[in-house]
Design brief:
single chain; alpha/beta; OB fold (Dihydrolipoamide Acetyltransferase, E2P); Rossmann fold; Ribonucleotide Reductase Protein R1, domain 1; six-stranded mixed β-sheet; five-stranded mixed β-barrel; 7 helices; 13 strands; 23% helix; globular
Length: 308
């Protein structure tokens, strides 16, 4: 039976890149429930599937969804208990961020990184639009790069406009399935157009009033790289709600905190109020970034505020 990878999902139809190189429009017959997760989408870009051509048509029916190695998930909406699977079977998560026009908050970055850690997906932080950074923001870029590098994340500083450091970025992409994500307006689509000549994806403008990007990507889509591999382009995300991350293990999703936990006086330390906490001591000493710790506190207090 033919097999392939889902490269685009529109909700009802799925474009599958078959192993023989053809692209086939497929649909689901009946309902699939994956891994007991309540999701808004049974299939996601990156899923491996088997399919059966429909007689007399150029379409096919998905008959089997292969087990996933990982997924990147977020809450479907703030009030929903369901999840939305952004992509599956990823080799890297590339979080595209900007210092200005628009500015990406560290809270958003850390929520995304915590989710990547929970699902064991290596993450890389890409600071785009470095050509637009003035002297007032250059120090901020330096400090953020230092914070995330110290935490253990590769940090790249690039410009889709000038092409700066895109060769370095390309080294991460060869032969890999990589997700590009971030706020609207950070330049995901512009980067892809530079990396994949001929992609000609539509880029948006930045609202002068709110300094926020306009959505240009409607559905997640995997785009083939010239030298092998795929980039998954995603719609811009305004917020990133944590899904299925346990309160008791949230600190483990921060690598620099994880490295200190065994030094805490109490094995079940939450790093909030306990005495003898190595994490809090590291913040006081300046060896653990205060912004990362504050974002951890925000997640603990806001995302789990309704826990019993």
């Amino acid at each position: 039976m033919p097999s392939g990878m889902v490269i685009k999902s529109t909700g009802s139809w799925y474009m599958v890149s078959a192993d023989d190189g053809q692209v086939v429009a497929c649909r689901l017959r009946g309902r699939f429930r994956m891994e007991g997760i309540r999701t808004t989408n049974p299939l996601a870009v990156g899923d491996r599937v088997d399919f059966e051509p429909e007689p007399g048509k150029d379409t096919a029916i998905v008959t089997h969804i292969h087990p996933r190695t990982n997924v990147i998930i977020r809450k479907a909406t703030r009030l929903s208990s369901a999840a939305h699977i952004i992509a599956a079977n990823l080799d890297y998560l590339m979080l595209i961020a900007t210092i200005a026009q628009p500015r990406t908050s560290t809270g958003f970055i850390d929520r995304f990184l915590a989710t990547a850690e929970a699902y064991h997906i290596p993450a890389v932080i890409i600071f785009n639009k470095t050509d637009l950074i003035g002297s007032e923001n250059s120090e901020l870029l330096y400090e953020l790069s230092k914070i995330y590098d110290s935490a253990g994340y590769p940090v790249l500083k690039v410009s889709a406009n000038t092409g700066a450091n895109l060769e370095q970025l390309g080294q991460f992409l060869k032969g890999k399935l990589v997700l590009f994500s971030g706020h609207s307006g950070v330049g995901k689509t512009a980067l892809i157009n530079r990396l994949i000549p001929g992609a000609n994806l539509r880029t948006g403008e930045i609202s002068d009033k709110h300094q926020k990007g306009k959505h240009t990507t409607t559905f997640a889509e995997a785009i083939a790289l010239p030298e092998g591999g795929w980039i998954v382009d995603t719609p811009g995300i305004k917020e990133f709600g944590l899904y299925d991350l346990e309160k008791e293990t949230l600190a483990q999703r921060f690598p620099e905190m994880r490295r200190l936990m065994h030094q805490c006086r109490f094995a079940n330390c939450t790093h909030l109020h306990e005495p003898g906490c190595a994490v809090k001591q590291a913040v006081e000493d300046g060896t653990l970034a205060a912004t990362r710790y504050q974002n951890y506190l925000n997640m603990m207090l806001n995302d789990y505020s309704n826990d019993n």
